[in-house]
Amino acid sequence: MKRFSQLAVPYIVWAVLMLVLPMGLIALYSVTRQGNSIISFSLTLEHYAKFFTDPDFLLILWRSLLIAVKTTLICLLLGYPAAYFIARSSERAQNILVLVITIPMWINMLVRTYAWIGLLSQGGLIHRIFQLFGFQGTELLYTEGAVLLGMVYNFLPFMILQINTSLCKMDHSLLEAAADLGANRAQAFRRVTLPLSLPGVINGITLVFLPAVSSFFIPKLLGGGQYFLIGNLIENQFITVGEWNFGSAISMIMAVIMMAAMMAVRKIEIRNKGGKEE
Fold this sequence. Notes:
Elements lengths: L1 H29 L1 E3 L6 E3 L2 H8 L1 H34 L2 H12 L6 H12 L4 H8 L11 H26 L3 H8 L4 H30 L2 H6 L7 H12 L2 H30 L5
Antiparallel strand pairs: 1-2
Helix pairs in contact: 1-12, 2-12, 3-7, 3-9, 7-9, 8-9, 9-12, 11-12
């Protein structure tokens, strides 16, 4: 036991330096105001008040939450059938399909998002296809639809892989038992497959919603700066405006929202299992 404790020391040191210390500094910046000298500061909550009393900032937060929910729902609607099809395929086909889904993830997300600019821009492949069907003068790039498309494209594999893992772990003899008891395919899916796949669905929702709500470079590239989300606001405060204290306050607000979302997902998962939180 002592040996395992010693092996955990490097991880604890890494976690403190890379996770706890940066979050502590962000929390400190969010409740302080710079004084006359570099080392002098005073405690204040004006940065939080500034955010919650400005309707423009609240609109950006609402827009970020809304597009994250849309992204999550679309990924779920597209990802569940895809994961179900993969899980019902042969073992060889499963390996090939999972590889097809994961290969794009080997490429940097920024590069993949840049590729959509060429596809959606004037004269791009998708724009030309739209023109063939009579949609002349349709703007595809720098719109909410382009941002949503970029998010779904980048985060959909996380949903598919999580649901597919749950479906592959399922005991298929339960489906045979349901059939023996007179259940048709729809009833077996609703009463057996769907409940057993919920852990994967919940994990997929978590892995899609959390990065989607805080994404900044996808709206920046595909929205062209015209579609401003909370991630862009935080980036702007730190890099462009130089308001580190206000940017830290927004970061802490988003951290609280994400933790609340994770706790809600955790409670749903525990309730689904019929257990109690330890």
